[in-house]
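Q: Here's a chain of 298 amino acids. Please give me its 3D structure as tokens.
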Amino acid sequence: MPCLRNCLVKTLVTVAFLLAASLSANAQQALSLPRADGAQTPVMVYDPAVTSESAEKHHGCAPLALLSPGAGGNEKGLSYLAKALAADGWLAIVLGHRESGIAALRNDVRNSHGIRAGVGELVADPNAYHGRFMDIDAALAWSSKQCIAPFKALLGHSMGARTVLLEAGANNKLGLHETHPFDAYVALSPPPADDVFPPDAGRSVSAPILLLTGTRDDTLAQQSYDQRVRVFDTLASRCAWIGIVDGATHMNFAGAGFGARELAERASTTLSTAFLDGLRHGQCPRPPTLAGVSVRSK
């Protein structure tokens, strides 16, 4: 009987712990953070799942992942990736970028008389990136007041991927050299050589970085996805992956659109967590094998 009672108590404690971890992984809150210029940065915060292992290793402080959506996006985007990171033990924060949000995009589309031209105008606007850099500043300042993260990563899609490369120190034609103390980067739909990035953009990127694109991820100039792959070949980083998802479109990586959305999301979450977890444990990991996804590494 004592054994039965003790076993029951242990079982209940385990269930309670797992339930708490599950709830923590799904907990999210919308916040508005003060920016250096007096503006506010809207963010969505996804609390990390807490395990005894992560609490002991990081003294209760989770690694931090900031997520930057594309042009016209907001803090409610990239939720599939933020939730996966939170479930993996990360404090995940999706940033809202008002200077390159839906209102700014609509204005550029109207002025340019077309969606592609409007997006092209917005992603080449240095002021929009200055706003994004201040949004990142605001999120880093807020998170550091909660806890000093032992590892920081910046992830982004589309214009967010451009932001990632700029933060990582990529060569560019806008004269932007803003960098923050991130340990690793993830760029979903990395940019091709264009009005912002020269063909050798990656030569000044030495930090660990994961790039992801799809075989239907055409560029703004309606070029093939292989134009997005070229930045990988120029990277100076000694720890880098590039994944190519069969059939995935540009918007599939944002968690939207038809086609290979499910596969794009699975590749994004699986490869991002595997890459970042390996790095925060002190190694450049080997990429996992995923059906429908081709991965190269260096």
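Q: Can you summarize the key feature?
A: The longest helix spans residues 2-26.
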